[in-house]
Design brief:
Chain lengths: 192, 192
DNA sequence: GTGGATGCAATGCAGTCGTATTGCAACTGG
DNA sequence: CCAGTTGCAATACGACTGCATTGCATCCAC
């Protein structure tokens, strides 16, 4: 088994470049050569690690999902043990929203992939799972345990994300809307 | 002034073809020739009515916005005069959601344009206006007149749309979430 | 009629795309 | 030390892209 290179590392290196390109030029600007240039490697190497473009896209998509997963986990961990449900939800959702310039890039990529998968249903199964899990978790934390309310909160988050990216809402407006929603769900005007 | 052809009609004919292509193959599949074939016209004609591809895209985007505007207006008109606020909101939002196969196509195009404009901020000003107007209107109808709550409801709608398109929510789930939200906003469990 | 504007089709061009192929350097197990 | 696997670069290919150009009907104003 000759040559020792970390395949996973190379692949994420390329995926990172892909995300950078997608973040400021859109997914349709993602091409093998473009990504390769952005990554500072040869186009041949990209081909070496991803036999097809779709394979590369799928991997990048999985990285996006993984990253947001990690963001949530870290944000929750920062809360310490047994946080109040309302604060917990607010933290999770705020962690997933594209509120600053850095997370906006990730958000743009995620949005691009959303449109991408809307046309390629097979590639969306992962996203579906993630949403379902999150819905169930949110429902378990809500005082009412209401699944429909949980689905609504999640949808509100997604919509806030979209509007933040589109420039329709400012970060402040989005957080206000989120807090107003939590007020509704928890009944308490501003306990958190 | 020779030759009398309805420019506007030709342009919408082409825009319709564009939307059909975008709806089932994604925006990145939209090319001059592709759209021309779908429209059953020559590529040269497309060029004749849109000097550049971006111009064509911008026009199609305006058509999308116009269509949804019309859908809302019609749905509201069907309610008769002075409808109950809750029913009014439900009707408007339901009219904007991609609930059936037909409106799903429009929704896919809209989503694609969302990602498209996220990278071309200048093309998004129209969308911003529309959102702002809708927010103000919703706030004026809500019992609390709360702008943040209105923004939240709008975001919830957008998120429901996204999840409907992604297959994460069924039409029933989306409507349940919407009704649950209206329950929260209007205090009444199921008066509508 | 006829000059001129217009509607539209056809073709050409330079560039980019994804991918298959080829070649070579580097390294490692025996 | 060397066969063989692997990492990677380079190139070629056909398809496609947006756009510019050209040419030719068609129609209106005069």
């Amino acid at each position: 088994m000759p040559k020792k290179v970390d395949h996973q590392q190379r692949r994420t290196l390329i995926a990172d470049a892909l995300m950078r390109v997608a973040a400021d030029q859109g997914l349709e600007a993602v091409s093998l050569r473009h990504v390769a240039t952005e990554a500072g490697v040869s186009a041949g190497m990209v081909q070496h690690y991803f036999r097809t473009k779709d394979e590369m896209m799928a991997f990048a998509l999985s990285v996006v999902r993984e990253r947001s997963q990690i963001r949530v986990t870290e944000a929750v961990a920062r809360l310490g043990e047994a946080p109040a449900p309302r604060l917990l939800l607010r933290t999770i959702i705020a962690a997933l929203l594209p509120l600053d310039a850095h997370t906006r890039d990730d958000g743009r990529v995620a949005l691009a992939f959303l449109a991408y998968t809307a046309v390629r249903p097979t590639a969306a199964t992962g996203l579906r799972e993630g949403t379902a899990q999150l819905t169930a978790f949110i429902a378990s934390v809500l005082p009412t345990n209401d699944v429909a309310a949980a689905a609504g909160l999640l949808a509100l988050m997604e919509g806030l994300g979209v509007y933040l990216l589109g420039g329709q809402y400012t970060a402040e407006q989005a957080l206000d809307a989120l807090d107003a929603q939590l007020d509704l769900l928890f009944g308490t005007p501003a306990t958190a």
